[in-house]
Design a protein that fits this description.
Layout: H1 5-26, H2 31-38, E1 48-52, E2 55-59, H3 61-79
Antiparallel strand pairs: 1-2
Length: 80
């Protein structure tokens, strides 16, 4: 892949800015815990969860769809 120095510098700057934003968010006490409790994986709206006596099944199709979209966007971004 042939990157011009300007594109490479811009990309590295964006990566550093995202890392800095994540570090700032990580400093907030309880932020990730609250987010995890509100929308834990496998319990997004429209995920199927069936619980009966002695039997339970969880089909997290919306969670899988969200993960697939995020990974596809990320892969297509790195391919360009």
């Amino acid at each position: 892949m042939n990157f011009s120095p300007g594109k490479l510098l811009l990309f590295r700057g964006l990566v550093l800015a995202c890392a800095g934003a994540l570090m700032l968010l990580a400093d907030r006490p309880g932020l990730w815990r609250d987010l995890w409790q509100r929308l834990p994986p496998g319990r997004l709206p429209s995920d199927v969860r069936i619980e009966r006596e002695g039997f339970s099944v969880c089909i997290p199709w919306v969670t899988c769809l969200v993960i697939s979209i995020v990974l596809s966007l990320r892969a297509s971004w790195f391919r360009k």
